[in-house]
Specification:
Chain lengths: 191, 322
C-alpha cells in the first residue's frame, strides 16, 4: 500500500571516511527518486488534471532536483521540504507560462493502483476523478494547500517551509481550504 | 466517496466534524499512480544524467572542498609512503613464487605468472600475503565489461581469481580476490544505481581511490549503462577441475546478469553475492577501481574494516622476474 510516511533512509557507513557523505551521485539520487517519486507525482496530479502534464511536470521536478542535489544543505531544512519546494516552483512556472487553469476533468486513462481488484480500481478511479473535479473549482491557493497536505503528505511545518509561511497560518489556511472543499462535495450531494 | 457521504451526518455533526471526516477521507485515498513504464524510463534517464554529471570536471571540482582536498592530499601522501615502503621491502622478494602457477580453465593448463599476466592484459595486482594465509588457488576467468552498442570484437582480456586460505584452521573462511579489467573511461563505480539487501554499505578510501564496502551475503548491486558478461560458457563459474589433479577452482561468490527489461540503450546489470556454503556466516566485500582494474575482495565478516582496508591497501603490482 501507499507508504505515506516514507522517509529517506540515508545509508550510514560504519566508519567515518573522507568520502562518507559522498556516495556516488547516481546511487544517492536513486534513493531519493525511489523514496519520493510517488508523492511527487501525486502532488503534481492534485494540481493538474491531465496525466501527460503530470508526467511532464514530475520529470521537470526530478531533473531540477538532480541539478541542485549536490548543493542541498540539510542544515537549512529537510530534504522533503527542499524537494517539494522545487515541485511547487515548477508548478508556479508552469501556470505562469501557460496562464491557464487546469482542465476540470481528468484524463480518461486514469491509472490507479494495479494491486487492487478491477472493481475497486474503477471505484477508486472515480473517486480520484471526482476529487480532481472539485479541486479545480478551488482557488489556486486552496488547491496548492490541499495538494501539499494530502497529495504530497507534508506536515504543516514542511508546508510552511515550502511556501515561506508561518506554521500557524498554514494550519488555518488548510482548515479553511478543507472546509471549502467539503462544501463543494456537499453541494453536489445536495444538488 | 458515495452519495450522501455528508448528508447522512450533516444534521448531526458540526461543520468541524464534517471537515475532519473529509480530511480523514483524503488521507486514505490512494495516490494517483504513474504509468510504471514512465516511472522506470524517467529513473533511467535521470540516473544516466547523474552518471554524466559525475564525469564533468565542474562537478568534480564542486565535490572537493578545500577540507576534503587537504584530507585527500594527506591520504595520498600516506598511500604513496606505504607503497614506497612496500616496494622497498618486497623488491627482492620472489613474490612470483608465491603465485607459481595460475590455472586456465579454458585450456585446462597451468600458466606461469608471466604467461598469466600476458593473458590478463594487466599486471598481476595482488596483496601482500598475510602471514597466516597461503595461496589456495589462482585461476583466470572470462568475464568482460562491455558498454552497450559496442559491437567491437570481444576482448581477449581475462579476469583473475585468487583464493587465499588460512594456514591453520578448517573453520576459517578464505579471502577471495577477483579482478576484472575496466575499459578506459568506464568509471564503473560511478555507475552504481542501487545496493539492495546489504546489512550495511558505504564508501571507503583505498589507495587514494573511492571504494565501497558491503556487509552481508544477500546484497545485489545494480549498475547502469554497462554489461558484465561471460566471454564463453567455459568460464570459471563452471568450476572445471584440473585433469588428474584434485585442485578445484573456487567458484566466485558472485552472480551477475542483466536486469530484465532494462533499456537496451542503457542496460542495467546486477552483481549479486552468492551465499555459498563457506559464506553462510556472513561476509565483508570490498571493491575499488584503480588503473583500469576493478578489484573485489571478500573476507570473513569478523574481520574488522580496518583489517580489510589494510589488506586492500597492500595491493600492488607483483614483481615478476622476467
Amino acid at each position: 500500500m501507499f507508504n505515506r510516511k516514507a522517509s529517506l533512509n540515508l545509508i550510514q557507513p560504519d566508519v567515518a571516511t573522507p568520502f562518507q557523505q559522498a556516495q556516488s551521485l547516481p546511487l544517492s539520487f536513486a534513493q531519493l527518486y525511489d523514496t519520493y517519486f510517488t508523492r511527487v507525482y501525486n502532488y503534481v496530479s492534485y494540481r493538474v488534471a491531465n496525466r501527460e502534464e503530470a508526467e511532464d511536470l514530475t520529470s521537470v521536478t526530478f531533473e531540477k532536483a538532480l541539478q541542485g542535489f549536490t548543493k542541498f544543505d540539510e542544515r537549512k531544512g529537510s530534504i522533503e521540504s527542499w524537494l517539494f519546494t522545487i515541485a511547487h516552483n515548477v508548478l508556479v512556472n508552469y501556470y505562469r507560462s501557460r496562464q491557464r487553469r487546469p482542465q476540470t476533468q481528468l484524463d480518461e486513462n486514469l491509472e490507479s493502483d494495479d494491486r487492487q481488484q478491477p472493481g475497486e480500481r474503477f471505484l477508486r478511479a472515480e473517486e480520484l476523478q471526482q476529487l480532481s473535479r472539485y479541486l479545480a473549482k478551488l482557488s489556486d491557493r486552496d488547491r496548492e494547500l490541499i495538494a501539499l497536505r494530502f497529495g504530497a503528505n507534508l506536515s504543516h511545518k514542511q508546508i510552511a517551509d515550502t511556501l515561506k509561511m508561518r506554521e500557524g497560518s498554514v494550519t488555518t489556511a488548510i482548515s479553511r481550504a478543507v472546509s471549502r472543499l467539503r462544501r463543494l462535495f456537499e453541494a453536489e450531494e445536495n444538488g | 466517496m458515495g452519495n450522501n457521504f455528508f448528508n447522512n451526518n450533516q444534521n448531526q455533526n458540526s461543520e468541524t466534524e464534517r471537515d475532519e471526516k473529509l480530511a480523514r477521507y483524503l488521507e486514505q485515498l490512494p495516490p494517483f499512480s504513474a504509468r510504471p513504464q514512465f516511472q522506470t524510463d524517467l529513473k533511467t534517464r535521470i540516473l544516466t544524467q547523474a552518471v554524466e554529471m559525475q564525469k564533468t570536471p565542474a562537478r568534480r571540482q564542486s565535490f572537493f572542498t578545500s577540507r576534503r582536498l587537504a584530507m585527500v592530499a594527506v591520504a595520498i601522501v600516506l598511500a604513496v609512503a606505504a607503497l614506497v615502503v612496500t616496494i622497498v621491502i618486497t623488491r627482492d622478494t620472489p613474490e612470483a613464487q608465491v603465485f607459481s602457477q595460475v590455472y586456465d580453465p579454458e585450456t585446462q593448463s597451468y600458466l606461469s605468472p608471466q604467461q598469466a599476466q600476458q593473458n590478463l592484459g594487466f599486471s598481476l595486482y595482488l596483496p601482500k600475503l598475510p602471514s597466516d594465509y597461503k595461496v589456495e588457488s589462482a585461476a583466470l576467468g572470462s568475464d568482460i565489461f562491455q558498454e552497450p552498442n559496442n559491437s567491437a570484437n570481444p576482448s581477449n582480456e581475462r579476469t583473475l581469481q585468487v583464493s587465499l586460505e588460512p594456514k591453520n584452521g578448517a573453520q576459517a573462511t578464505p579471502i577471495e580476490i577477483y579482478e576484472v579489467h575496466i575499459p578506459q573511461g568506464f568509471d564503473i563505480l560511478q555507475r552504481i544505481q542501487s545496493v539492495q539487501g546489504a546489512q550495511s554499505y558505504g564508501n571507503v578510501e583505498i589507495q587514494g581511490q573511492r571504494g565501497y564496502f558491503i556487509r552481508g551475503t544477500n546484497w545485489r548491486m545494480t549498475f547502469l549503462g554497462a554489461m558484465l558478461r561471460r566471454r564463453n560458457p567455459g568460464g570459471v563459474g563452471n568450476r572445471p577441475t584440473a585433469p588428474g589433479n584434485t585442485q578445484m577452482v573456487r567458484q566466485v561468490p558472485f552472480g551477475f546478469g542483466r536486469v530484465p527489461q532494462s533499456d537496451p540503450r542503457n542496460p542495467q546489470f546486477f552483481l549479486q553475492f552468492l551465499p555459498l556454503q563457506r559464506w553462510t556466516n556472513g561476509a565483508t566485500t570490498l571493491m575499488w577501481e584503480k588503473n583500469g582494474i576493478l578489484t573485489v575482495i571478500v573476507t570473513n565478516p569478523n574481520t574488522n574494516q580496518n583489517q580489510v582496508q589494510q589488506l586492500a591497501d597492500s595491493f600492488h603490482e607483483l614483481n615478476i622476474n622476467k
